Structures are given as structure tokens and as C-alpha cells.
Amino acid sequence: MAAEQIEQENLLRISGIMRESIVDGPGIRYVVFTQGCPHRCEGCHNPQTHDFEGGSFINIKTIAEDINNDPLLAGVTFSGGEPLCQAEPLAGLAGIVKDIGLDLMIYSGYYYEEILDMAETDADIRRLIELADKLVDGRFVLAERDLTLPFRGSRNQRFIDLAESRRTGVCMEYQSHKWDIL
Hints:
By secondary structure, this protein is of the alpha/beta class. Helices cover 32% and strands 21% of the residues. The chain has helices at 3-9, 60-68, 87-100, 112-119, 123-131, 162-168, 178-181; strands spanning 11-21, 29-34, 56-59, 75-79, 103-107, 134-137, 158-161. It has a 7-stranded mixed beta sheet. α3 runs parallel beside α5 (123-131) and α4 (112-119) packs across α5 (123-131). The chain is globular and about 40 Å long.
């Protein structure tokens, strides 16, 4: 594989990074906001992430070093934009996150069942979803907005425990506890 191709596979187009968030999943989380989203949900919390040509590029190794240097982190969250649109570099970063020993959560506008269908033909999506521990799925629906839901914005979205879903073969929602939110 050419060095240029390897370098390109390690580049991620991001809208931004939040180094210590408590609102993007349980515990203190490092959040990568990917750039580019095909869903463009009305009332989206991150409309600046929609443009596929916006944002800036960063090497996943730079992100990994930043994550590794923060002992307070419980996990990493991939948000967006739509993370599955950059499954290849995110799968690489996800592998590093798991090697560090952190929890991985993904926000996607696609439903879990759609993701599983996509994973049948896309090895990068398959690897990414296999490495993730939690998933908030579904597009944000303004008419179903509910600010009381932990880690999601509308009632149609699910907070899925991917490990339990893989174990049982059934989509299992995450059973959050009060201490998860602290």
C-alpha cells in the first residue's frame, strides 16, 4: 500500500472536538464531531456539521494521542455529522480507542437495523459497529424532541447496548443508571 494511501486512510474530516463532555454519553467523554451529514434533520443540534466540504482534516493518530493523554476519560463518542460516512478512518480510530481500554459510543441518523444491512456490504461499517459499545440511532425528529431523555434528543431515537444486542441477537436498549449520567 502506498504511503500516500495509508496517510489518507488516517485522515478524518471533523467539525470539531470536545475533550471532556458529560452530555454525549455516560461519564466523561472525548467527542469527535465528524463533518458531513446526508440526513440534515430539521432542528439539528449541529447544523454546522452538514456540509461535506466543511470542517478540517485531522490525523486519527493525533486524536488517539490526545485521548490517551487524558486519564479522566470513561470513553469516546463519535458524533456528527454522520460518523458512518467516514467509517474507514473511524474504524481505525475505534480500534485504537478499544486498545486504550475505553468505551466507544456512536451517534448515527441511521437506525441500527439499517446499519446492520449496510455492514453486510461495507467492511468498514461492520468493523466500526463491532467495536462500538453503545449507539444512539435514528434521525432527530423535531416533533418528537424530548430534553428529558438521557443522551438523545427525540423520542424516536434509541440508546442501544451494542454488546448485549450482539450477545442476544436482538436490539437491546441500554439500561442507564443515575450514576451513568454523573
